[in-house]
Amino acid sequence: MNEKESRFEMTKKHHTQTFLKAKKEGKMDKDFIPLCAHIAKTKEYFTSSCCAGRISLVGLNKEEEKKESAFHRKWHRTVKLKEIEEGINSYKGHILWFKQEPIILHIGTKNIENAKKILVLCEKVGIKRAGIKVAKEGKYIVEILGTHNITAPIKEGKFVIDKKHTEYLVKKANQKFIKNQKTLEKLTKQIKKEIK
Amino acid sequence: MNEKESRFEMTKKHHTQTFLKAKKEGKMDKDFIPLCAHIAKTKEYFTSSCCAGRISLVGLNKEEEKKESAFHRKWHRTVKLKEIEEGINSYKGHILWFKQEPIILHIGTKNIENAKKILVLCEKVGIKRAGIKVAKEGKYIVEILGTHNITAPIKEGKFVIDKKHTEYLVKKANQKFIKNQKTLEKLTKQIKKEIK
């Protein structure tokens, strides 16, 4: 085994152990388990980080900088109106954003040919946002990002979203959360078919 | 010149001509001209498609599929409340989304080392969404996507956003549009410094 190969083996082993530990401890997004478990069993691929999608309320400071961002509330499931209303009412910071975010997944692999295979596979299932983020000898990481999302500011200074609008946003976010899960199912199916 | 090099030269020539033609005809996003003009002059890079950011109203059908999407209105500048109100009032389709979208830029290059240089450069200026989308011998394309964005459904069936909320969204979208322009300025400066 050469240096490049042994680096890959070490990285794969590390990420596979992290996945198995998170799964055992119930810290793993359950919608992602079938996909990650399949990839863990392959010879040339691993998953590093992933989120099966979420609905959240994010509070930011005046500069609205990412590093200052904080989840005021987050759910990895559909939400109820009263949960969102409680989150809005209890928020005392500068600005509150309502977010419904798509799946995000990092798949690592050994060589660029495998990474390209993932890119083609994503196109097949209709995921447009996929790209190679890391390209090193023996370590290529593809980032996969779903498209269904909502990003809307809902509370700032004197402005606060009204009840009718909140109700509508919750309904749409839940719809999109479910669409997102279907994209994940399609992706899982395609990966199981093509990546052995 | 080998086959790989001649493929790159042809691709670069094609995209450079497309850029110069669009610029001449005034079809080019003017905020992107300094960056694209600089890249056109380099030996090993070209730009393919780009948008310096926009604010738009997007109408979708019941399935909300991308392929059915249509710009009801779009602006490559900050907007006025009355423009958005006119767009909302005149919309008769299934669902209308308000969108403020970040910069998107594709930079092509000859080899993977150059593509990686672009990824590192994006990290330096705080652009998290950048990835290699195409990886072929002699043709590597990096997609760069800004982060400032708003994506919110505002009209569907009996629901329509109220005036106070529209006013607030317009204010935030204009703020983010300007932040987005600053990211583009930073990116342009860094590219001029590092990519010759």
UniProtKB/TrEMBL annotation, chains A, B:
It catalyses: 4-demethyl-7-[(3S)-3-amino-3-carboxypropyl]wyosine(37) in tRNA(Phe) + S-adenosyl-L-methionine = 7-[(3S)-3-amino-3-carboxypropyl]wyosine(37) in tRNA(Phe) + S-adenosyl-L-homocysteine + H(+). It is an enzyme of class 2 (transferase). One of its GO terms (molecular function) is tRNA methyltransferase activity. It holds the Pfam family TYW3. Residues 18-192 form the tRNA wybutosine-synthesizing protein domain. One of its GO terms (biological process) is tRNA methylation. Its EC number is 2.1.1.282. Keywords: Methyltransferase, S-adenosyl-L-methionine, Transferase, tRNA processing. It comes from the Archaea. Belongs to the TYW3 family. S-adenosyl-L-methionine-dependent methyltransferase that acts as a component of the wyosine derivatives biosynthesis pathway. HAMAP family: TYW3_archaea. This is tRNA(Phe) 7-((3-amino-3-carboxypropyl)-4-demethylwyosine(37)-N(4))-methyltransferase. It comes from Candidatus Iainarchaeum sp. The lineage of its organism: Archaea, Candidatus Iainarchaeota, Candidatus Iainarchaeia, Candidatus Iainarchaeales, Candidatus Iainarchaeaceae.
